[in-house]
Amino acid sequence: MFDRSRGFTILELLVVVTILAIVAGFVLFTEGDTRKTASSSAAITEMSSVKAALNRFRQDTGDFPTPANPSDFSALYEQGAQAAWSIDVSRGWRGPYLSRRGEGLVDVGDALNSDGTGSPATVTTSAHDDVRAVADPFVTWPIAANSDYQRCDDSAPDSSCLLDWRTQPGDPRHPRWGRPYLLFELDNLDNARLVSMGPNGRYESASCAAQTCRDCSPGGDDLVACLAY
């Protein structure tokens, strides 16, 4: 007959603890994977909205914007040098094309070129500071300039961190934020594309070279939206 007064043996306790640890690990893995999937879905939705805004800009003005660097989205928020909308010719800037609620200012390296080569984490002359950009939903840390995306402490007011954000000039830096979406080859309709650095927060794509955007595979876990298709 089973003795109900007998407690668990050490072996039985170890088995139970091991099972619980496996279950807990699976739950944490699933939760993390679900969060990553949700952020990827949000990024795809956001990229569709940004793509639509860029194409409205092009329809109104005749061309895509010509940003100073690939993370610069200021033309979708502010008129700048664009001619104002003219009802007579049905042409001109009539934005903003994106909600101001989603904008922010980011510091990026100047080594990233408009064709998709280079890196937003590398400074060759001087960084682009306070660029009007749009953040993706993948929350990440600022990085140290010219590093392999190593986390950077941005608490100091004179910090040289890159891919760090503030809402408006003079505001404190956000400790963590998304990465800026990037625009490449806007002067080439077949290659024009919008890129997110993806869940790992690293830019891993490159130039499409002789390929069109449709044939150009993204690097790593980057997400790419072709603007012409």
Question: Would you mind describing this structure in some detail?
Answer:
By secondary structure, the chain is of the alpha+beta class. It has one domain (10-226). Helices cover 23% and strands 11% of the residues. The chain has one helix and six strands. Strand 4 and strand 5 (193-196) form a beta hairpin. It is globular and about 90 Å long. Residues 28-32 have low confidence and may be disordered.
Order of helices and strands: HEEEEEE
Total number of helices? 1
Strand content: 5-15%
Radius of gyration: 23 Å
Q: Largest beta sheet, briefly? A: 3 strands, antiparallel
Count of the separate structural domains: 1
Q: Multimeric state of these chains?
A: single chain
The residue-averaged pLDDT reads: 86
Short description:
By secondary structure, the protein is α+β, with helices and mostly antiparallel strands.
Q: Strands, helices and their partners?
A:
Layout: H1 10-61, E1 103-108, E2 128-134, E3 165-166, E4 182-184, E5 193-196, E6 223-226
Antiparallel strand pairs: 1-2, 1-3, 4-5, 5-6
